[in-house]
Structures are given as C-alpha cells and as structure tokens.
Amino acid sequence: MAAARGLFLSRPSFIGKTILGFTRGLSEALVSEKFARRSGFLQSLDPRVRLVGVLALVIAAVACRKLQGVAALFLVASFIALLSSLDLWSLAKRVWIAVLIFTGLIALPAVFITPGAVLWTSPALGISISAPGVYSAAILILRVETAATLTATLVLCTPWIQILKALRSLSLPAEVVTMLTMTHRYLFLLMETAKQMFESRESRAVGVLSGPDRRRMVGQTAGVLFSKSMELSQDVYLSMVSRGFHGDVYLLHECRLASRDYAVLLLFLATGFVAVWMGR
Fold first, then answer.
1. 264 and 222 share a domain?
2. Does residue 258 sit in the same domain as residue 139?
3. Residue % of the chain over a pLDDT of 90
4. CB burial of residue 242 (10 Å; 0-12, 13-18, 19+)
5. I need a surface site. Which of 33, 53, 136, 157 has the fewest CB within 10 A?
6. Pairwise pLDDT comparison (55 vs 111), residue with the higher score
7. Contact present, 264 and 53 (Cβ < 8 Å)
8. Range of the domain at 126
C-alpha cells in the first residue's frame, strides 16, 4: 500500500486514487481478520451464541422507547467491544463517525418540524428547535449507533465463514448462505482484478490523459471487468459443483456449545429484556 501511495503522490489521478481505494479496501479486510484472531470475550464464544446474542441486543435497541434504555445498551455494546480486544478509536473510525454523519442528516429535519416545547428560535431564519424534536433525533442516532456498534463488533471478531455457519445452523436457507458466501469471496477477487487492470493501464499511459480519454478508458475497463466477472462466475460455479458443493457450509472444527456459552447467551437475553423493560 505504501508503494502504491508513493507511486501516485507526484501526480494524483483518478486511476491512482482508484488503485489506492482498492488497496485500502483489501487492507481493511486484513485488519478485520486480525481482530478475529485475537483473544477476547466474543472470540471465546460459540459463533451461534455470538450471533443470537448480538441479534437479541439489536432487537432490544430498536424496541426501546426511552433514551435511557438505548443509552444503557450503547454502553453495553461499547463494553463488549472493549472486552473483545477492540479499541474505541477503531470503533470511532469505522462506525461512530460515519453513523453520526449519515443518521444525523436523516434526523436533522425532525429537530425543526416536530411540534412541542421550543428550545431555540431564530427570528431571522424563521425556524425553531423543539425539545421533542431533539429527543427524537437523539434516540434515533443512539439506536443506530448501538446497532452498528454491535454488528461491527460481531463482524470484526468473527470470521465470515463462522457467521455463515451460524446462520445455516439457525435454519437460514442454503441458497441464501451460498449467495452470501460467493458475494463475500468474489468482492475481494473483484477488487484485486480491478486493481491489477488499473495498474496495467497506468503503467502503459504516456503523459496526462484528457478528460474524454479518461472517461473512455474507465468505461472500457468497466466493460472488460464485467465480461471477466461473468466468465469467472460461471467457471467458479462449475468448479464448486464438480467438487461436491451443495450449498452447506462445512468447517474443519465443528463448534460445540459449552456451559459457558449457555450462561453468556442467557446473559445476553436478560440484558436485552431488562433494556426493553426500562425503555417501555
């Protein structure tokens, strides 16, 4: 990644930025695998317990109607992340900042249009901020932050194949699991192929291309990439079928529930129930 960055520092271009974007995406995937190999709270649990427990807490966060209950679940989610060897800075970069910006833009109109007690008024602009609007925006943002923190912690601390295995053990259709498996694997292959194609184009380009030439080159590259994707998907499917793949996910080490897993699962469910009871 450092070599690619140094290559394009002298003359930033669309192709250079695209290559850096693909490289950064692959690096993020490697970082996620690193978190999954660490020793921590979620890593020590059965994948099915992680999935069901996180899902229960997410449902509880959505069902809570009071800010106190959602705030308590957010603290629980942050505490689970810390126990799972995740640092708060990583969560802030990956989850909290992006969710705050995106959800904040969605919740912003509610601050002005929700009727109720007025907290602040601007005579010049003719707008006012109501207390119920601020409360509604705050609970929406906190709900999304809590759900995103829980799901991000689950994905970072659990290998993707274990998540799929847990979904399949919970009676998710094999067709859905197969699509998720192929999509996850193919995304990395697609990024690597596109990165190689852009690097090849950049190494053969002489001088600075004009705007129309750049757009034409990007269109041609996208067309070739789509054609290669269709051909490769068919080859991969035939290869998997010839090796006996029928849609089920198999692991070398089958997971077995221990007494600790049952206790933690009960704790997850109890926490979600208490949070919903507090937020009635």
1. no
2. yes
3. 20
4. exposed
5. 33
6. 55
7. yes
8. 41-158+254-278
Question: Which pLDDT value is given to residue 230?
Answer: 75
User: Taking the C-alpha atoms of 76, 79, 84 and 89 in order, what is their torsion angle to the nearest 10 degrees?
Assistant: 120
Which residue did the predictor score with more confidence, 140 or 19?
140
pLDDT band at 83 (very low <50, low <70, confident <90, very high): very high
Is the same domain home to 200 and 77?
no
Phi and psi angles of residue 9, each rounded to the nearest 5 degrees, phi first: -70, -35
Residue 153, burial from CB neighbour count under 10 angstroms (0-12, 13-18, 19+): buried
Are residues 97 and 118 part of one domain?
yes
Does position 181 have pLDDT exceeding 90, yes or no? no
Q: Are residues 237 and 263 in the same domain?
A: no
Q: For the chain, give the number of residues.
A: 280
What does DSSP assign to residue 38? S
Q: Average pLDDT for residues 226-241, to the nearest whole number? A: 76
Structural domains of the chain, count: 2
Instruction: Identify whether 169 is part of a domain.
Output: no
pLDDT at 209: 64
